[in-house]
Structures are given as structure tokens and as C-alpha cells.
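Hello K.,

You asked for the raw outputs rather than the summary table, so here they are, unedited. I folded two proteins back to back in the same session to keep the settings identical. This is the first:
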Amino acid sequence: MFDRLLALGIASHEILRIRIPDGRVERLYDGTGRAPDGIVMIGDSVYWTTMGASMRDPDIPGEAGRDYGAANGGVHAIDRDGNNRRDLTGRGSVVTGKQLAFDGVDRLYWGDREGLRVSSIRLDGTDRRDEVINAPAPDRMSECVGVAVDASAGHLYWTQKGPSKGGRGRIFRAGLSVPDGESANRRTDIEVLWEGLPEPIDLEIHDGDLYWTDRGAPPLGNTLNRAPLPAIGQSGRTPEILADGFREAVGLAVDSEAVYVSDLSGRVRRIGRDGSDRLLAHFDGPITGICGLESRA
């Protein structure tokens, strides 16, 4: 059970620590780099991704008017006390770093949205590799965003959200390793589990269920969703909507008692398994990725 969360301020470039019992907030780190998005804590280190700097089109409102096509994102780390900043990826190796996941052993996985891929790296920054590379497609259909790892089953899950509010989002599954004789851009083990979703973003696996946030159009979008992990070769069941009314739902953290969701209005909500729904914190700026910390962390 979590007693704290770490949260990323995408505009403030901060890592924030939230106490779950009372919602009290502390700043852990200031200076993440431009547009931080995904975060995990492993042992005594905090890891996060950045989307990098964007080009702004003043004639197009909202996120659609931001071009993140430059390869200036990355994967970064600090010690738990906020010191010893290091960059795990080299300049130009990540386009738009999105959700970050850990395999429980020694590798981090992340979605690279404008890079059209899912990549991974060892915790020490070595052995970077691409796991999935998509061919370009119109309407943002090839962009990878959320990631989750089921290490016990040897599976990688990811979202491709499609066009904003487009109702064409998908969730995929493949093996944690590229099959022998194949490559990241030519894999035969990729399954489409869900399609026609409003706009799925971040993923988490807990007790045999897949949870995801969706920032698409209501009533099915701007929701927290849950569905059982499907068997190999089967499509996913219609998801259960656990909560709605978010304002561009993004970040996700799951424990045995609750699910925590952040959104771009700066809100972090606690959705209890007892049916409760509590506003845990409300920030002045948008919040992207979150992760939960247990009392010993």
C-alpha cells in the first residue's frame, strides 16, 4: 500500500512528493528538463522521461498546436534525496519520452510518442534498444504512449492513442524480447487487444488486471478503466469504467486499496476500492506521470 506519490509537473519541471494521508506536498527536485512525463522509483533512485522542447503553432490551440518532433527528449535519474543527476540516454536518441515502466530486474521501458516506438535501457544507462518500431501513419495512429511490463508472463503492453478525441485508440501486447530472427520493426508476436478506445494513455498491471487512463471525449473518455488481461490470442473484454470526470487524465498508480490518477488540470484523485473518490492534491499547473511509494521506499 502506498503512503506517498511522486508526481511530475510538466510546466514547472518539478518532481513533487505527495503524502497520501493528508495530501501534503513537498518538492523533491527542480530542473527535470522540458516536459517530464513518466516516472518510477527503483531502490534509491528516481527515473523519469522528458518529452523535450516543442515548437508552438499559435494558430492551433492546446496540445495539437505543439510539435514535439525534435529528438530532444530523454531518460534521466537522480538519487532519492534529489542529488546526483544523470542522463541515461544520449542526445538525439529519444524523441518524445512518455510513460516509463520497470521490468522488476534491470530494465526500463518507455513509449516514444513521436519516435513511433517503444524502447528500453538498463538501469545504468547501457544496452539501449528498440523493442517496437512502427511505420509512420496518418492521424497519429503509430504513436506509442503508455507502457506496462508483465515480467512473470514475459509480456510488454503499450498504448497507441490515435488522434486527439478520435475514438481510435488501441492497446497492444508483445513479448518482452524481439523474437529470434526478427526486428523491432518486423515482429510477428504483436497482438491488438483493444481498439476503438477514445484515447488511452498510461497503463498499469495489478493482480491480473490492466488499468488505464483515457483522455478522450466523454462519456467513455476522461476515465479510469480496468479489464482482465486477456489470454494469448484473445481480445480484451469491454473495460469497466471505475471513475470519470477527469480533465485530460494521464498519470496512473495502483495499489491494493486504491487507484491514483493525475490530470492536466493539476488534480490528483484517489479512487478507493471501497467506492470512495477523493481529491488528494490540486496543483496550479498540469501533472503528467505519477508513481506510488510504499512506506519502506
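The second followed immediately with the same parameters:
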Amino acid sequence: MKLLGLALSALLVLTVGTRAHAGTTFDAVKKRGLVQCGVSTNLPGFAFTDSKGEWQGIDVDTCRAIAAAMFGDATKFRVVPLTTQARFTALQSGEIDVLTRNTTQTLTRDTTLGLIGVGVNYYDSQGIMVTKDSNVTSAKKLAGATICVLPGTTTELNLADWFRGLKMEFKPVLLDTVDEIKRAFMSGRCDGITLDKSQLALARINLGSTEKYVILPEPLSKEPLGPMVRQGDEAWFNVVRWSLNAMLEAEEYGLNSKNVDEALKNPAPHIQRILGTVPGMGKALGVDDKWAYRIIKQVGNYGEVFDRSVGAGSPMKLDRGLNALYTKGGLMYGWPIR
């Protein structure tokens, strides 16, 4: 019986170890040699093409970080632009490996779609924008208003819930893209538009005047945005989760793309672990020990990504707010790499 027990224990260890290093998606990505990421069709700050036709943004950089972890090369990825209606189907069907597309993490999405949220790469909230000429100063004064909204999104659901909670009627106008929503708003087809507040801030800039349009103060929801993967492949889930955590930990540790090479000489244990100068942290993920170093070197820490995408170094110039590190009053908190 004792020998049988030892044999079963050994089998369990072997099974757990195998699961930790292999899975359908993990193996397929490894064999293909690149990561396929679903992103927005064109959402500045999150996923958009620059003047050179190259993809940029927080969600694209999240994809690049995964590629750097998996292959040691942040260019080993392909983006698949997806509408809100197509994004979950594309992930479920295997058309993409990971959805890095400003997607809200919710209980329903984690439990009914065969998908699972990995973490948060941007904390947002939903709002409503109106024209200044409307003299509306609160969303609570929009009874009977026509609101343009993206269909099949938590944005649509939150809008309906918010008005229902106040026992107010409104008229939704469902449009497939943010560009369509902006055009409808400018033409007077809707009294207001609802999007995440980060998107409203950009829309106000794109519409040509930050003075002509007002983002109303009420938050209609909490919007923790982040990557999603298919359920059932813990190895791939872990690579995506810890790629995000590596960027957050790097910022907290003061590591960035410019100083990371010098930091390789740092004797501090937590620095040695994250940069792979001591072995072990890569094997647990099924990747090279330098996985986090390559993310930091080739993509940057979370603060660098935020700054160039939506922060001070971008046209949007958004404050960090909730997306500051927890040490600076925000919600961003990297899990320990140890």
C-alpha cells in the first residue's frame, strides 16, 4: 500500500508538471511561432495604426509583451482587428489566441462563454458625453434622451441598467463602430454618446473641440479592461497573466527599457528573479528565464506603455488616475514574481 501510495503521488506530480508546461493553445502558439491577438478595429490609445501603418496602443503592447515572453521577440505577433460582435466568437473558435481588446472582465463572461479574464491592463469607467449647448450638466437630466451606443457590449447593458435604476426612459441608437457613433452625434442623430471615459476623452479631441462637448460627471459603471483567453489551458493562461504582471512589477521596481541592462548587475534577489539572472522563474512558465527581461527591454514597463499610449506622451494626455501604481494611490498592483 505504501508503494502504491508513492506511485500515485509520483503520477500526480508528473501530471501536474505536464499541465504546467503544455496545453492546446500553448503548444499551438509555440509551433506557429507567433501570437495571434484580437484587438479593436481602430481605437486610439488602445489599438490603432500610426502614420507608418504600424500597430500601437496599450492592448497591442500587451500582445507584444506576450510575444516577448513566449519567443524572446516582441515582434512575433499578429493582430486581428475585431468588432465588438466578433471578438468573443473569434477567441472561442481559435481564430485568435488571446483577446487583448479593451474588454471588460465580468462574471458572465468568465462563466458562460468558455473564456476567462487574465488580469486588468486599464481601469476605466463608462460615461456620457453631450454638447455644451444642450446645457445638460448631469446624466440624471437625460430622461427621454437619444443615446448612441455600441451593440453587444457591457456598455449597452450598463446604459440600460443605469437608466432603469433611476426609473428613466431613454432611446438607444445601436451603431457598430465608434466612428459611426461620432458621426451620428455630430449630425444630431443622438443627444449623447456613451463609451468608456477614456474613449470619450479621445472622441472629444477628434471632434475638434474640448470646449464644445461635455463629459458628464456620473460614472455609469466600473470597467476593468484586460486580456481574455479560452478556458482549459492553464499554461497559456499563465504566460498571458504573468506577462502583464511583469510590466507592473518592473515599474514598481524602477526597471524600464532604458536601465534594464544595467540592472542585470543588481544583487537584490527580487531584481535577479524578475530579470532571470538566477534560474527558475522561466521554467515554471515553460519559457526562458529571461522572459521578463525581454518584455521590459523590448516593450517597457507598464508606466512606459501607458505614457506613450494614452498618457503625457500621447495626444490624449490622460492622468494615470486609477491606473497609477498602488504605491501612488492607484489600483495597479503587480503580483510578486517569486
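The first strand starts at residue 35 and ends at 40.

Happy to rerun anything if the numbers look odd on your end.

Regards,
P.
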